[in-house]
Amino acid sequence: MRAEAKTTGKSPADLLVLERFLPYRLSILSNRVSRAIATRYAKTFNLTIPEWRIIAVLGRRPGLTAKEVAEATEMDKVAVSRAVAKLVSAKRVSADVHDADGRAQSLTLTAQGEALHARIAPIAIESERRLLAALSMTERAQFDALIDRLLAAARQL
Amino acid sequence: MRAEAKTTGKSPADLLVLERFLPYRLSILSNRVSRAIATRYAKTFNLTIPEWRIIAVLGRRPGLTAKEVAEATEMDKVAVSRAVAKLVSAKRVSADVHDADGRAQSLTLTAQGEALHARIAPIAIESERRLLAALSMTERAQFDALIDRLLAAARQL
DNA sequence: CGGATTTAGTTTCATTTGTAACCAATGGCA
DNA sequence: TGCCATTGGTTACAAATGAAACTAAATCCG
Asked: In strand D, which positions have an atom below 7 A from any protein CB?
């Protein structure tokens, strides 16, 4: 077979434009959003994103173990361990030995943690609302559904 | 989209469900996709994501300076500096003093870099295609447009 | 010109993050 | 029982990342 021209004449399949490449775009979008939110929480509450996630999940589901928190937040267990340690030492979360398993710990928000949760939840909702203000209601629903599908697809990449 | 039943005492505005929180979902999606792709490139080509981005952008736009690369890839200049250093020492990129500015460098792919680019581009396109296989053509277009809008919105968060 | 200011890129140092090894409690199961 | 593989969680170490200080070249402007 005849060799193709060296630098020109790329076939469409080979044309990679970073700015249009979905994984790249997702990364940029996620970073922009996360950074905006993270700096806000860091300044106001001295809270990192992993800590924030743990507060959020314990707020709705008290008594989870570290492992369950890891599953619920999709963080790995080391990250959870570290964030929990900080939260415990800040008296925002209490860790009690689990009834049925001496290794596991039952994690719950302390009163302080509850108070914090009550303050951050509305802010989170508000941030999301501000971002989504760029879309109509129908578009939001569409987007949400599409993200769901992609999340599932991405699981088995 | 389903209406939330008010079964807890909390008002809707305060109800934060991590799994449905868009910034969280975006982060998870982006991570899954990036991780899948990154491990593949790491194994096959010994290439990190920042390096990969630089190769991608120089492939289409040779002669950019580090600063321009930073802008094009949305990475900060430190990250670019480090990745470029690795690429240069691996002889994948060459950095020549810029004609008009002695501080700047003109970055181009070497022959090796070109060859690498020619190999990774189709793989990238293919990965993206596999992910997007979960969506119909119309949905892809929709999604893409929505991401564009959110990217713009996220810029001024 | 020539000093002050800005800009391109690098280096340094502190933090964060990821991987693997580790410890201790548990659950099989012979 | 008692041994061994498994599991929940932590620790240790290495690599990646980010912020700020730094070098050197360019620009501004008297």
From this structure: 7-12, 16-20, 24-27
